[in-house]
Amino acid sequence: MNNETATEKKAMLKDAAILFIITLVAGFLLGFVYDVTKEPITQQKEKAKLEASRLVFADAADFRAYEDFSADAAAAVINAAGISGVSIDEVSGAYDGAGNLLGYVITVTDHDGYGGDIQFSMGVALDGTLNGISLLSISETAGLGMKAGDVLVPQFENKNVDVFTYTKTGSTDASEIDAISGATITTRAIVNGVNAGLEYFRSLS
Questions:
Q1: Contact of 92 with 164, CB cutoff 8 Å
Q2: Rounded Cα–Cα distance for residues 52 and 48 (Å)
Q3: pTM
Q4: Who is most buried in 6, 25, 66, 68, counting CB within 10 A?
Q5: CA-CA distance, 145 to 143, in Å (whole number)?
Q6: Where are the alpha helices (DSSP H) in the chain?
């Protein structure tokens, strides 16, 4: 082996060692950042869910996780009803100050939004009245689907119907939701998700 070849080999080994060290340090830093931010992110998500629960169940003094909840069982219920593209993520009981059950807060994700998943909480009283819904996560088109909070959410408040539909010509019934102009996919996803939540609620009683 001549001196030139030996020098090139040493340079390659040196570069490889440097790259390895950089990768190792970067991995360590990423892991450290993840550990530092994981807990605050989790706390923020839980805070957002609690605030959403209070919005859709203002009469409740306490919320407790529904112990018998099963995502698979929930999926079976909504699939049997012919509803697809939706998952029930979690369920909490809403209780008054005396510990009486008032209804449920159901967290729903519709996976068929225009911009991806749309997640929201919905509060349903024991008599089937939908108190309302509160958006948790949405990434729809600005100026169109992102109007869901202003246009769609208020239309679900205090409704007691079996199934919601949407219309582009103006609602004439409590079960009809006026679609967002230019955002039919977003409208359909949220209506579909609410119907899934109501179907699951009926399986609890």
A1: no
A2: 6
A3: 0.79
A4: 66
A5: 7
A6: 3-56, 71-80, 148-151, 184-204
